[in-house]
Amino acid sequence: MGQQYDYDLFTIGAGSGGVRASRVSAAHGARVAIAEEYRVGGTCVIRGCVPKKMLVYGAHFAEDLEDCQSFGWEIEGKRFHWQKLRDSVMSDVDRLEGLYGETLENHKVEIFRERAEITGPHEITLASGKVITAKYILIATGARPALLDFPGSEHAITSNEAFHLDELPKRVMIAGGGYIANEFAGIFNEFGSTVCLVNRGDQLLRQYDQALRDRLLQISLMKGINFHFNTTFKSITKNDDGSLHVELDGSPDIDVDCVMFATGRVPNTEGLGLENAGVEVGKKGEVVVDRFSKTNVDHIYAVGDVTDRVQLTPVAIREGQAFADSVFGKVEPYAVDHSCIASAVFSHPPIAAVGLTEGEARNSLGSIKVYQSDFRPMKNVVAGRNERSLIKMICDAEDERIVGIHMIAPEAAEMMQAAAVAVKAGLTKADFDATTAIHPTMAEELVLMR
């Protein structure tokens, strides 16, 4: 490596992508440093998927404690303590942050716990004033919740603050129709809050199959979640008792105790000094990169949510790995395949999908075959819970190659991981039909659809 620089790689941002890229680059022999102005671990570990999934687990007990009575259990005096769950979640976040830091240190990656800015070619200046040079610079600063701007919008919170609430609000209004909005709607609802979701459009989860979206809406309504479609915010004012009066355009005014914005995420590129290095950014502020995560400046790369390609933690990790292997490893440079990526929404019940939706498949392939299983899980039958699951398989009519699988069911994400391998590998409906079912399971529906 070139010794004329202080480091071979300087990474800005210690989230999932930045940590993976730094650790692997160091393992390849590079001299690596990383800067993080907040906490090591990034959105996923500190204020995203990990603590949110813990809240999801906590929320599931609400229905489990109710359903278990049909299985012979007696539960007396059940109570939910928000502060206890909140503190348990934050304690585990602290533990994970420490492990991420240890991983970097064990690979001899130097950590600067302060803000970093690109101040020239191969040059980074830290908030402390220290100037550092690096042969390569990697931007991995992630994204942040988007904020709405209207009178009184400062009274709202985002998903970042939701993990730190002093008390569980009795009435919650959530702005948005994507996965974060629907996940928190389910969480707060199961914890006993009255929940309404405000969406400026007329659809939830637009990137998912229509049948799954309709089923989630139906079940959510049955659970008591209210929806206000084609509705926007006019203002929020604070009442004398501390509650919030929300004036809406498209729906009647509502008084709530908490308003949460969940209207997408914005790449964190402000104040990074990208203009000093001539790095191109897109309309949303995202760092523009090629398929190898390289910017228009040869020595500067970017991975993860800051590129606004696919804002998912496993994607950021793969991009970080590919960068490190391609730049510092003794391998032929390779790019991450961003097609056919499986995803999940940890709603109640959860949604999981991979590949083309039915609508997308009809538009791109023309002739398709759709197989589906619409059933009531055994546990729901015994518990007397009238909640049905749905699994769909989309196939190319020409050769019955599976081009999409979509499901809304308990543990949908756990089933989808293996199914995603099959779709990625190009297996056919006949391959699934030839596989013996595991009975009794929900997953057996994947190989029994006719």
The N- to C-terminal Cα distance equals 59 Å
- Shape by Cα distribution: globular
Uncertain ranges: none
Structural class: alpha/beta
Largest sheet: 7 strands, mixed
Number of helices: 14
Strand tally, please? 22
The total domain count is 3
Q: Which CATH first-tier class of the largest domain would you pick?
A: Alpha Beta
Output the CATH homologous superfamily of the largest domain: FAD/NAD(P)-binding domain
Can you characterise this structure?
The protein is 33% helix and 24% strand. The protein is an alpha/beta fold. The strands form 5 sheets. Strands 1, 2, 3, 4, 5, 6 and 17 form a 7-stranded mixed beta sheet that branches. The chain folds into 3 domains: 200 residues, FAD/NAD(P)-binding domain (3-Layer(bba) Sandwich), CATH 3.50.50; 111 residues, FAD/NAD(P)-binding domain; 100 residues, FAD/NAD-linked reductase, C-terminal dimerisation domain (Enolase-like, domain 1, 2-Layer Sandwich). The chain is globular, with a radius of gyration of 24 Å.
